[in-house]
């Protein structure tokens, strides 16, 4: 097979056996252009909606005589961009540290304080314009961005997110959330698969806490689990303090406090979400003469196990750890 691939105005005449796979073509192009395989994007007519790397060139829709346009930065350009981004973050960090001296303090439960700083928030909210009912999607995203408990943990941990937007279920069916470049953007699956409504708010907010953890840790290792557990615990503690009338956060939405269905649910959230270290000794199966404390322990244990399983499933549906699922 012979075809032409053009990158930044330079044409490359390609001649490969028809049984060549798409991944082998990417490796060949990397040798020619110095553009890493995972950063190459090929544009051509007849391209299938989802082309797997192990497909042969004809199976991927490539034919002899075809003209293909390739997009992607070279290794040198990537290094330069990363250097510029690192410098930008360094300057921003210095600015934030200098501004911290003048920021307002508000009291939190106990003796700690949290900085009410305008940088630690979601700076832009954008629903996907090509999806139906974008106005309702914007309201949903705004509710997340103005959630007082979420703002509380963002202020406490100095989290800044450039863009909060959504994931289209049909475009990324295996993802519930994605954090790009440690907070440059966070994308969340807020719609149902059938586009007939929106997913439960508390489910999406748990995904948001998970993705905020990726502002600090990229992989789902023990460091990640510890911080994710801490964020979920702080959200639960904050909302309990608001309910008890002991805490407010200027700039946050008041009166929109999540109340767990039971006190046991709240305890399980504090100790389990994200891999907390709280351990229960398994109790015997329920019986008619089961004591109140034994029943409480059994229900709490079952609730904790359920939340652990849900968190494991969330990790499997997160595109933020390892290679981006959107590449």
Automatic annotation (TrEMBL):
<dbReference type="InterPro" id="IPR029071">
    <property type="entry name" value="Ubiquitin-like_domsf"/>
</dbReference>
<dbReference type="InterPro" id="IPR000626">
    <property type="entry name" value="Ubiquitin-like_dom"/>
</dbReference>
<feature type="compositionally biased region" description="Polar residues">
    <location>
        <begin position="105"/>
        <end position="118"/>
    </location>
</feature>
<dbReference type="GO" id="GO:0070628">
    <property type="term" value="F:proteasome binding"/>
</dbReference>
<dbReference type="InterPro" id="IPR013536">
    <property type="entry name" value="WLM_dom"/>
</dbReference>
<dbReference type="Pfam" id="PF08325">
    <property type="entry name" value="WLM"/>
</dbReference>
<feature type="region of interest" description="Disordered">
    <location>
        <begin position="306"/>
        <end position="327"/>
    </location>
</feature>
<feature type="region of interest" description="Disordered">
    <location>
        <begin position="96"/>
        <end position="118"/>
    </location>
</feature>
<feature type="domain" description="WLM">
    <location>
        <begin position="113"/>
        <end position="308"/>
    </location>
</feature>
<protein>
    <recommendedName>
        <fullName>WLM-domain-containing protein</fullName>
    </recommendedName>
</protein>
<feature type="domain" description="Ubiquitin-like">
    <location>
        <begin position="1"/>
        <end position="71"/>
    </location>
</feature>
<dbReference type="Pfam" id="PF00240">
    <property type="entry name" value="ubiquitin"/>
</dbReference>
